[in-house]
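Case study: Fungal-specific transcription factor domain-containing protein.
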Amino acid sequence: MTTASHQSFSNTESHSLDTPESSPTRQRSRSGCRECRQRKVKCDETFPVCQRCQRRGSVCQPTLRTSQWQFEVPWLANSPLNTISLPPIADIKVDARLMRYWLEATSQMLSVDSSNNPFSFPILKYVAGSPSLVHFLQSASAAQEAYFYQPEMSVSLAKRGQALSALRQELQTRSSSLSHCFLTLLMLGMSSSWMAMGPTDYGREHLLAAPAVADMILKEKDSNNEELDHLTMGIYVYWDMACSFCLDPVDHPTERNGSLETYVKEARHKFHPITTHSIDLYHLLGQVGRYCRVIVDGGRRDLLFEVSCETSLIEYESIETDMMAKSLTEAFRKHGLLLLYRFCGRPGAFQPSGTILSEAEHYAHQLALDIIELILSIRSCSPYVNIQAVPLLSAGSEMTSLDSFQRNQIRQRLKEVYSTNRLVSTLWVLELLEELWAVHDTGMTHITWLELMLSKNWRLRVG
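Here is what the predicted structure looks like once written out:
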């Protein structure tokens, strides 16, 4: 989607979508309080009134050295934790406002549980050992604050460059542990698609490096970093799944990571803010996604793999206790089955007969309807909305012209997803679906969403 089309979409949908133009927060950012406007500095949009400007002579957007980093958290006003102080990290400059914005706002887009979010205030225990992570958090905050709008992302891109430079130095000097470096590496890679001007960058270089680093960490099994390693492995598994359709077959791993395979089976009972208790399911979906990409690119089918994946998905049982988490897990499980039936026909059959093919088509459509029903059973105000774009794309691609009601439901939910996380990739998902529906409605040809994506030379990292 071009910048022009992005703006056009935002203007036409302003009545139902939290866009840069329509958002009250965005308007505060542009106008600011009177004193900020007089001093021609950016106002702190995280509060209706810029608190710093209440103290005459203060600077609205302070830049402090780490040793001076201290800021107030309003909702902890009566708590001894109200003032958060950190020990010196290095002789680097820290924008306290951007760090606070990460803790209170940006971090929420990475978690499906706002009450149990290690990306928020708990992440402070990791920043002291990783200057690169400090730079990244500020970069991501500046980007989300600007709705990932390229003309307003100069601060974000500058901070991102500093994060990359600091990460290289940490790896060379070993000044930070491998677990700390892996966290920054994953965050930089995962956010590549957030910063891109088009649906082409999914963090390929970082994704190719991640398996080797994950394997080293899992083999070391440092008990001091056990909590951090669980956090990073969940990020990696989810990101790998979301990128599985983007990665060219030539870049696919030639060997399975045995350490990771063992880890995800053991770790599903431990909650993760992205994969909840289903890290093993997301790991399986990553393998299925890469296999589907091979099939679309003309690769040979592996019947044993297809049957194994189908059996695993059919037999998979969620251990979630929260109903919304269970619905989301079930939606992803059926998403995996839908991929197999759409791209492989009936698993285990080379050339399905007309009857079998018809049954597969019917089953794929029913799976898509089930996914939509499961997704819409989750409240639109829930943090579980954050990662719904993946199953919405696969299910939405199956909706025919007779499913106009479901198409509208998908449109509305994707707009709600965008309003929650501000990621432009969500709008690209909707654009891809609209184009796919238009092609299918002509009746001239039937093309899958993945084939259409590749024909447009997109590498859309969904979610």
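For the exam, be able to explain this: Strands lie at 63-65, 70-72, 83-85, 93-95.
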